[in-house]
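Example for reference:
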Amino acid sequence: MKILLKTMAAVALGMLATSAAQAQVTELRLAHMNGPQHSVNLGALKFKEAVEARTNGRVQVGVFPSGQLGESTAVGEQISLGGALIGQLSTGVLSDYVPDYSVLVYPFLFKDFGQIKAFLASDMPKLWAEELEKSNLKVLCHINFGTRDLYTRDKAVRVPTDMTGLKFRVQPATMYTELAKSMGATPTPMPWPEIYSALAQGVIDAAEAPPNAIVDQKHYEHAKMYMKTNHIVDVSPIVMSLSAFNGLSKEEQAVVAEESQKACDWISEDTAKAYDASVQVLKDKGMTIVEDVDRAAFAKGAEGIEKAFPKWTPNLVSKVRAALANQ
C-alpha cells in the first residue's frame, strides 16, 4: 500500500511538474504579407529556429506568411491591443501612431538602405520609438524591403506625363497616394494580395514594388513594362507587442532582441543582393526593362508631397536632409 501511495505521489508530482513546464511556454506568432519563398519568410524561419533553440523551447514562434493573420494595418492593431504578435508592418501603419514615421519612405529622400540605417541610429527616430511604445508597439528592428520601381501592364513610362490617366495601384497610405498624384496618375488604393487579379482584369494599369516582390507574386504574368524609377528605398519595421515582450523573462527578451536583429540583417542583405537578379528574372519572364527614366523629373514632382502631412513636425524633410548631411 505504501509503495502504491508513493507511486501515485510520484506520478502526481510529475504531472504537476509537466503542467508547470507547459505553463512556462510562451507562444508568439510572426505575421507578414509575403509568400513562403520570400526573403522575409526565410528570415522569419531563421528567427523561429534560433529563438526556440536558445530558449530550449520555452518561447515558440509560429510563422504566418501570405497575410494569413490579416493585412498589415489589422496586424498592427492586434499588436497594439496586446496580442502575442510580431509583425512586419509598413511605415504607414506606424505613422497612424507617430505621424513623422512615414518620412522614412519619402520618395527620392534616401539614396540607399545604409543611409537609412545610419539615420535610424540618430536621435529623431529614437524619439519616435519611445512614442510608439506608448501605444504598446515595440520596434525590434528594420529591414530593407527593397528598392521600389514602377511597372505597368503595357505602357513604357519615362517621364511623369507618361503616367497621365493611368490607374495606379498604391498602398492604402497617404504617402503612396500622393506619390501617384505627383506622377500624374490616378491613385487606386488596394491591398497587396489583390494586385495580381487587378492587373489580369485591367482594374489597374500600374503598380510599384521591389522587383523580388513582383517575382514572388508573379505579377510579370500580367504586367509587361518595368521602369527603374528607384523612387523609394523601402524600409519596413518589425514590430512586437510591448506587453508581450515585457511578459518574457530578461533572458528571453535578450534572445528575441538579438535574434530579431540578426534576422533583419540577413533579410536586408538578401534583399540587396536580390535586386539585379530579380530584375533579370522579370526580363526572362517577358517584361521589358526601361532604364532611361527621367528620375530627376519624378523627384521634382515629389517635392510637394510634404504638404499632404500637416501632422508632421514642421520642415521635417529638411530636418532629415540636414541629419543626413551630418552623417
